[in-house]
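Treating backbone geometry as a discrete language has practical consequences that deserve illustration. The sequence in question and its structure tokens are set out directly beneath this paragraph.
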Amino acid sequence: MYKPQISEAMKPQKFSSFQLFQEQHQLEKTQLFWNLSPEILIDHSLELPDVRRADSGAIAVHTGRFTGRSPENRFIVRDEITESRVDWSSINIPFSKTHFEQLYLDMMAYIQKKELYIQQVFIGGQQAHRLGLTVATELPWSSLFVHNMFLSPSPAEMESFQSEWSVFCIPSFEAHPARHGTYAPNFSVINFSQKMILIGGTAYTGEIKKGIFSVLNFLFPTYKNTLPMHCSANVGTAGDTALFFGLSGTGKTTLSSCAHRKLIGDDEHGWSREN
């Protein structure tokens, strides 16, 4: 497999500098690939046994046991920030700070001497609502997903890139429920105090996307006075906007795709006083 050296151009700046990120998470023995291009990520992915190039030129991936999300194994750390603000239920499942710390330490120990693919990206189309993310993935095609899903900083933006949240997606790391407080080996845990998401036991990349959108679903109404919406949206020539709500797979994208109207987006949006 071709393994490019980490050049100065690839290295992140300021808060998430190469050395600082390694030191913060004690990953000095881990090889980190920073902000690789889609072309290189595809090359790395095609070296793996469950990845093929489709006739269209895209890569087809077998994600293993999980071909969809596992919402019954998504947790939120119960702490001073979330205690009175989250509607705790079978959807928003509480997770202890002690179990999160043990899960994090065990995951970091597990990835020692392994390779991680890291993308620095933005979430949020408007500057006032934008967050910087550092997403570390075990698999190169997971990193490719992140590159496609979120907003890539320009070279100028990368010079002053500030990461506010970190995401670790390590499919081969499985939790032990008795030790880590999970229900199963697969998990996704959000910690608002640490500004971190831990994902393990599943290679389905939708867990990354939905984890970040879950973060925005909390932050936007709590701190930004903005309504998060799971919808598609388009706009007409007169500036009239239409919103299409519905569960996943019910046709939001199809309905919003119209030759006579411009597509704003087909998944997640925020409605603020400014728009």
Remarks:
- Confidence is low (pLDDT under 50) at residues 1-16.
- The chain has two domains: 14-223, 227-271.
- The first helix runs from residue 18 to 24.
- The helical segments are 18-24, 38-46, 97-110, 140-149, 155-159, 177-180, 206-223, 252-256.
